[in-house]
Amino acid sequence: MTTTHHHVMILGTGPAGLTAAIYAARANLKPFVVEGNEPGGQLTLTTEIENFPGFPEGIMGPQLMADMRAQAERFGAEFQMGWVTSADLSKRPFRVTVNEDEMHEADAIIVSTGASAKLLGIDGEDEYIGRGVSTCATCDGFFFRNKEIIVVGGGDSAMEEATFLTKFASKVTIVHRREELRASKVMQDRARANEKITWALGMTPLGVEADGKKVTGLKVKDGKTGEEKVLKTDGIFVAIGHSPNTAFLNGQLDVDAIGYIKTQGVTSATNVEGVFACGDVMDPHYRQAITAAGSGCKAAMDVEKFLEGSSVHDWSESAPESIKA
Predict the structure, then answer these.
(1) 43 with 15: CB under 8 angstroms?
(2) Homologous superfamily of 3-117+242-323
(3) Can you tell me the distance from the alpha carbon of 86 to that of 89, in angstroms, rounded to the nearest whole number?
(4) Within 13 Å and on the Cβ side, how many CA atoms surround 294?
(5) Cα–Cα distance between 323 and 265 in angstroms, integer?
(6) DSSP letter (8 states) at residue 322
(7) Which residues face 85 on adjacent strands?
(8) CATH 3.50.50.60 domain position(s) in the chain
(9) Which 3 state secondary structure label does DSSP give 220?
(10) Consecutive sets of 10 residues in the chain, 325 residues long: mean pLDDT of each?
(11) Is the dihedral of CA 48, 52, 53, 54 positive or negative?
(12) Residue 187: which residues within 8 A CB-CB, separation 6 or more?
């Protein structure tokens, strides 16, 4: 197996990875970017983006990712379609296997593999992602102004998304397969106090109903009676959590209880010297394109300092004490 050496490898090409590639390429680090099995990340599943700065008329998600990729290529970033199947972070240079049969070495690695929204696995779901089915209320809520929508889930995320969506929708129905919710009491109370929110508990989603162009309903099964019926809706928001894409790391980086990579202080540095993380793979809270892009900038700048011989402590000392921890 032939081994190729790189100064910097970037794993993932969402807004975090592509921003890191732009900055690293402009620093003449010649980053090698592995695109993953979903080049461009979750934004390639989004239609129009209206909250990314610089686009007053909005921009389509795939177009934004294509433009960012072209910008990185302009400065010398090299891209390869592929999937990282394993990584050895025990010593430098790090060794990364791509597509099971290509070996790459890198002096530094930026992990920007993102977090995948958990889906229901029901008929029509994949087909109508971005066309009435969404996993991001902040991204897509605006498009459902004065519409009736459904939020599927029973945890804090579902309550938060449903409450947020009432700013736009005329009615939000929370669908959950159990009669009891998993959400904290405070989040449940907040949702129940909202007059725009209605409830369809004990209902198991079976499939997305659509007319070929847009979503028209959610087919569910009543847990008590076994009856199947269709809940009419203009949109379905799936809010059952996210899974950080870190399985290939095989536990070599410190992660939190859910699996998000831990970074040190205000930096993007991980517990392994020379390995950095940015974007949704280390951010369980914001999960926005603009925050991911910002963290990608940080990661590239941290990598540049690392390769110059600085340690994480050197470039975090200037941070205020209140945000170092």
Answers:
(1) yes
(2) FAD/NAD(P)-binding domain (3.50.50.60)
(3) 10
(4) 11
(5) 7
(6) G
(7) none
(8) 3-117+242-323, 133-238
(9) strand
(10) 90 95 97 82 70 90 92 96 92 94 95 91 93 88 94 92 95 96 92 97 97 94 95 96 90 94 96 97 89 97 92 60 45
(11) negative
(12) 156, 159, 160
Topology of domain 133-238, per CATH? FAD/NAD(P)-binding domain (3.50.50)
pLDDT at 136: 86
Residue type, 123: D
Alpha-helix runs per DSSP H in 122-274: 137-140, 156-165, 185-192
Listed residue (200, 140, 136, 192) closest to 163, CA to CA? 192
Say what the pLDDT of residue 47 is.
64
Catalytic residue ranges: 136, 139-140
pLDDT at 323: 42
**Hey, what are 218's tokens?**
């959610």
Q: Please, is 188 exposed, middle or buried when counting C-beta atoms within 10 Å of its C-beta (0-12, 13-18, 19+)?
A: middle
Helix (H) or strand (E) holding 244: strand 242-244
Task: Tell me how long the chain is.
Answer: 325
pLDDT given at position 48: 75
In the numeric block, the tokens 């949109």 are attached to 235
